[in-house]
Structures are given as C-alpha cells and as structure tokens.
Amino acid sequence: MTTFDYKHEAIRLGDSTYVIDRNFPVDVELEARITELERDLISPENTKVTLGNVLGDIGSYVKDLQAELKNKVSIGDPVGWLEGARDLENIEFERSGAYVYMNDVDGFLTTNRPLRNIDNPPDAAVQIRSAGVRIANNLKPDGGFDWKTFMTAGGMIADCITSGKVRTNDVEIGDDDGKILLTGGNLTIKGGGLEVYSTPSATDNGVMIRGNRISTNFVKNPEFLTPPNGSTDWKLYSGVKYDPSANKMSIDCSATMNFIGIDQMLDIYHPKATFQALFRTNSFGGSTPKSARIVLYNYDRNGQQLESRIQTEVFSLYQKNLLLTMPVVFPVDTVRCRLWIQVEFDKDEEKAMEILWVRGSYDDVVSQQQLDMYPKDIYNLDSKPEVQIFHVTISHSGLGSGVYRNCGRVKFDQPFSPPGELGSMIVLLTPYGSKSVDYHATAYSVDRAGFNLYIRTLTSIPSGELEVHGLAYRAGYMGNVGLSI
Question: Within a 10 A sphere around the Cβ of 334, how many other Cβ atoms?
C-alpha cells in the first residue's frame, strides 16, 4: 500500500486506520493498525505502509454472537448471563485502542487513543508500575484519568467484580457497623440479621433471624422501611402520613374523628398467630382518651367474610408508648384477612399519634408431629430438663434515656441441678406493664443459682417500679430442637 491516493492524510506508526476495499459490490471496511512505516523523504508519495492486526467491524462480531446464541438455543444449552457478559466485553476489548508509552516515571502505560490527541484525548488507560496495576475508563473533571480499579500485592479494589465462581478461604463484607463473615463453612452476621424469602421480590412470608430470635413475620413492610404503595403492602387513609425520615406513620387527629389508620391484605397459612403494633402519642395529659386497636377482617377461599377479631387498648394519662399485643385464633377456613392498625384521639392536633411498626408471627409453627421426626435421645431421662418461672420488681427514683444499669443479683427460688459438661442454663426476660416498651432486660453471669439483671432504657422513665417476668430452664444437653445457629 502507498499513500499516493491520500496526500492530505498524516499517518504515524501505531495509528489505527480504516481500510476500504472497493472491489466488492458494497465497500468492505476493516480497521487495521500501522505496523511498519517506510518513508521516502525525497518522494513522499512512495512512502510504504504495512498494515497488521486487522480488526473486524462491530457488525461481524454481533453476527458471530447471534450465531453462537442460536446454536446454543438449538441444542438446548442454557445461555448464561456470565457468558454473554464475557462476549460483550470481548467486543469492546477488541475495538479498544492500544497506544503504548514507557518511561521511568509512568512505567508501562497503555491508552485507547494517543496522549497528544488534543481534539479527542484518551479516556481509558491501563498503567503498570512496580506497585501494581491500575485501570481507568473515564476522565476526572480536571482531565486526568479516573483510576478506580487497582491490583496490588495487598489485594484488589474494584467497583464491580463479575465472576462465575470465587474460591477463597474467607469472605468479609461490611464494616464495623455490620459485617458478614464466611469462613470454614460457617456464616456469621454481626450487627444485623438474616432474612430469607422464596421469591425475588420478597413478597412471601419469609424468615428473619436476629440474635437468638427467629421470627416468621408475615406482615409486609412491617417497619415502614420503604414508602407504602397501597397495593402490595400498606394502604393509608385520611389523616395518615408516611414520614420517610423516621420510617413511621404520623396521624393528624380531629375532634370529630373515628378510628383511622392503615391496612393491608394478608394470606393466612396457620390457625393461630400473634399480632403486635407499637403506637406513640405526642400529646400528653388531658382528659381526652387516646386509643389504639388492631382489627382483623377474615375471609374464606370463596371471599365470604367470617367472624372478625378486634382488640382495643387505651393510653394511660401520661403514657407515651403503647405496645398492643393481640393473640388470635382465626375462624375455621380462614385463608385471607385484612389487617387494620388504627388510633382514635378526638382532639384537633396534627401528628398527635404515630404508628412505629407492625408485626405478625405464627404460633406453634413447629408441630408436635414435626418434633417427633427428630432423634429421640434428646428427650430421654439423661436430659433432665428443669424450669422455673419468676417475677422481679425493680424500684427506682427515675432513669434517663440510654441508661445501662446493673440491678443486682437475682437468686432462683431453688438452685438448678448441675447442667453437666454438655448442659446449658438459659434465662429469658420479658419487661411487663405500661413501661415495658421503654427498656430492655438482660441476664448476665447465669449459673444454676441465679444471674445478674441489667436493664437498658430506651427513653426517660419517671420514678416508680419496673416489672420483669422471667423464665429459666436447664437441660443436660446443648443445642436447640431441630435448629442450630
């Protein structure tokens, strides 16, 4: 090839150029790299150019990819997203430029266009130095390369890693506020919980594990973490507003109001359940009563309404939070229900009432028949289970918010038998009464004679008494029936 026909063109060694073959009915264009350049300084028209690294156009690559996809479909071989991602990346890789620069400062630098191209500067680069490799596919506002991918002896940093399989000894996800660890075949979650759903959109009941508690909550969007949409979760009625900054429902009250609130439809799979809702009032004192209630409209598979279930509680005079708990035995043949969470406060006041969260869990999810399927040796006489139920009253002169207090040593009525090497002692504590939602109770240093009782306040509590119900049990074995966490 000579430059005789293109006197106006300037070419350099390593440039990419399009080669046009007009010997076909339709011109054929190919992209090629100038690999050799022999200049004739006396007669420039005789300069000889050698082309190499011929690259096909995008059309040919797309046709090849389509043919491969058709072939896979025809033989029944599933087309994986990973293979498609590889093919598309290969197309982009083959079409990218490779202008190489080496010096003692930049090391080995490859760009997609020449560095001296002022009109169309390079915006992708790979740089290799003794410290490692870094990759950029964009420019920063100042015109420098936006390096985002790094490979060094210390590891790899990237915005996204696409892979078919990752083989490693340990995986750590997150930071000090919350971590997920995968090591030695074990999954450890710190500062969070595990939620399992059977549908991609998490529309089924799901199972949630947090700490030592397993919940089969079936209320959708129970903590209002996402805005309610009225079709798949909560429907809001007049006077109810969603507060996205605090993930709660605020309710404007009026002197002529009746019970108002939110509702959603639920599928029912079990004859018994427990519903809970946490309410808060921003209006203290006064003679006007403040009420909260849970209502269930139950239906059979034909849409016929069955007997309803209602539970109502009234705030005490200076009560701020109210936890309403409603155990339910559904009418026979119930398959659907409409859950209403409502408040009533006959006074003109904006945001006077709030709904903080709503939960529903099935009772007796594990039947005795299912328990009988597990090995019987944990029920034999060697286990020697023992149980004690107790009540603790704590007198105090007032507690501030966020207080963590040791209330002293609690002794059991009778010491438990020694649990033995494989045994365990467990204490379950439940706050009780009007202040039950204002603090947590925890047992530490548990042995067969007693434990240390600690409380942590969630809000300020005026002087008075706090009540805690407790259950302590001992068994001559470790672990839980049918489940190990």
Answer: 21
